[in-house]
């Protein structure tokens, strides 16, 4: 059997990849470049919005007190963008959002830089606050993206979000 | 003569276990035999990795335990989807 070339979803040259829905003001992005929060805010801006909420997930330098040297992410866009589309559409419908951005960085993300940007806008603040948190939690549960932590001691581990809650505490299952 | 194949992509723990990001396997293959084929190539992968993974065929998730009659055809794209960790 022939040697398999690197699949396109692992080739940074095939990024950034976008999916947008102008009618619902939905903007999704997977990129190997640094994320720009101002760009996200500009996209959700709307004359009908009175509330704009921005969340940046940034890469932390420890995992359970072990020093982390760097983190990297991979995705499978055929599924990832589909999943993010569903999350965004559901959030717009449920919370009456006037705009939403979900952007995730891939490849190596140096410590302290943003790996995920969630930005949502709505007429009033309650809906935007709630939607921002909810969208992030559902992304962490469902989006087909994987984080690898490379420790200072040279070890590497793939992380699983199902093992941790929103406070970083270990989830006891079953 | 070219052997008909499908493409299978691995991620995270599945990449680590197989040492591969992708490979082509002989097609057609009944979907319910997929884990057995992988187990025969990568001993122990079923218990250590696959039990906690989902599987996609094309761009749809499939139920590997309830897929009687479903075939992985030549040219198809399959992905092993371990527990995710975005954010």
Automatic annotation (TrEMBL), chain A:
Keywords tagged on the record: Cytoplasm, Molybdenum cofactor biosynthesis, Transferase
A biological process from GO: Mo-molybdopterin cofactor biosynthetic process
Example of a GO cellular component annotation carried by this entry: molybdopterin synthase complex
Subcellular location: Cytoplasm
Binding locations of substrate: 124-125, 140, 147-149
Role of this protein: Catalytic subunit of the molybdopterin synthase complex, a complex that catalyzes the conversion of precursor Z into molybdopterin. Acts by mediating the incorporation of 2 sulfur atoms from thiocarboxylated MOCS2A into precursor Z to generate a dithiolene group.
Protein name: Molybdopterin synthase catalytic subunit
Lineage, highest ranks first: Eukaryota, Fungi, Dikarya, Ascomycota, Pezizomycotina
This protein's encoding gene: cnxH
From TrEMBL, chain B:
Species per Swiss-Prot/TrEMBL record: Aspergillus coremiiformis
HAMAP family the record matches: MOCS2A
Protein name: Molybdopterin synthase sulfur carrier subunit
Keyword Phosphoprotein attributed: yes
CDD domains, alphabetized: Ubl_MoaD
InterPro entries per record: Beta-grasp_dom_sf (IPR012675), MOCS2A (IPR044672), MOCS2A_euk (IPR028887), Mopterin_synth/thiamin_S_b (IPR016155), ThiS/MoaD-like (IPR003749)
Pfam assignment, any one: ThiS
SUPFAM superfamilies recorded: MoaD/ThiS
Family: Belongs to the MoaD family. MOCS2A subfamily.
Subunit structure: Heterotetramer; composed of 2 small (MOCS2A) and 2 large (MOCS2B) subunits.
Localisation per UniProt entry: Cytoplasm
